[in-house]
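Q: Hi! Curious about what N-methylhydantoinase B looks like structurally. Here's the sequence.
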Amino acid sequence: MAASDQTLRLDPITVEVIGNALSTVVEEMGRALMRASYSANIKERGDCSAAVFAPDGTLLAQAQQIPLHLGSLLGIATETLKRTDLSTVRPDDVFIGNDAYTGGGTHLNDIVFFEPVFVDGTIVAWVANIAHHSDFVDRGHAHIFQEGLRIPPVRLYRAGVLQQDIMDLVLLNCQVPDERVSDFRAQMASNRLGVQRMQALFQRYGAGTIAAASNQLMDYSERMARAGIEAIPDGHYTFKHDFDTSLWPDILPLAVAITIKGDEATFDFDGCPPQTRSGMNMVFTVLQACVYFVVKTLIDPDTPANAGFHRPLTITAPEGTVVNATAPAAVYSRHDVAQRLIDMMFAALAPAIPDRVPAGSTGVTVQTVSGTHPRLGKFYVYNESMGGGMGARRLRDGLDGVHVNSTNSANIPVEALESEYPLSVDVYELVQDSGGAGKFRGGMAIRRRLSPIGHQATVNLGGPLNRVPAWGLEDGLPGGLARIELGAGVKPLSARNGMLEGGQTAAAVTSGGGGYGDPLARDRDLVRRDLREGRISAAAARDVYGLE
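A: Let's find out. The predicted structure is below.
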């Protein structure tokens, strides 16, 4: 931005109006993407996000949808601007990318559309959206080459004209191409809406005013972040915890160290293990998204989501580790480690701000079924990451059956699932005794059992917290473990994969959240209510909560 834009001072009302307009643009882009999309993963679960960037790639606003998507959105802006001669960029050019190392992504299913906003022949902003495409199944995870098509930032549209050869290349590597092309059209519609809204905003206020307001908004976010950090007592806070996932046979020790000094915070992840030959590795932009989520959650969720918020934060992690992987490490299930690291950062700060920190929360159990639709004769992919129990808080129970921390997506309703896929959902319920006991109970896990109808299907089930549960705080007990339940006649899964014949069942049971406080201190009326509602068993009420 020009120096004159940086020194121009606007009245607070104008800044607030423009800030709200930027937030509205990205929220409207996200809603348009969900309404126009074809696949259940986007239109039902909302596994998508949108953002607006300054001409130099600085984040101006992000929709409040999937926090982890910030990693991909930051990456696509950086990589596109680094690799592209901007003098060649024209109105209605659209870049597409997904690669974790060259395309600004964090895993290959998240495909980003990135488009310039021109006013009077000059790029005044960029709009972007990201959507998770549930397409790449039956893939290995030893390295990224096995996980799907890697797309660096390339122009899918040039001056509004679709580059059919690029589209053909992408679709040839997709297993459900009809679904992909329809969702790509929805992403295009989202971006075009964003471009129109941003152009209208610039035409109303002018580039100088928008640039000045953006700078003041980022300064405001920085001040809010610094004030929130300064309210945390100075100190060096650490937390270590074992991590397990069905993707990897070994239990891995994770570590985080947080230093609060005045109005700045340093997050150091030295001590985390080397990257693995599995899909649970994270690239650095994912780690950044995790830290930003933690700080924003703890200091003030209403802090505007722009680059100013990031200024007081320093993040360090050795390259080649599971939290800062280098090519060609696989990254498909990077959310497994991300979820656990966020909980660990909360736990590290619990001694300093106990009233704001929850106990350990669920990881994400992924349930994927694929096969040939017996009526349509087409290949289908049902893919869903399932939440579970949120950790209890100092004065409140954890939420039941939800995505937490970095994911924040919804579920696919049974009615939508059964209408779109040749599958029957036999059980969809909360799991008794899965929430960690405490003065405040951890959130309950989910059980979803399904079966294919009239055909043989491939099933992939698994995730973290199969052996090491979500921890409790202040004498609260840990949550229940995740597990897989196979019906009669189903062979044990090999590396999370197996086959289901028509009518055979497989169920994913997610993990429960940890409890907070001594279970014997739980209000007796709350224990009786939990027992009456089937949240806890009679044995737990008697033996754990001491109900007579």
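A: A fun detail: The first strand starts at residue 48 and ends at 53.
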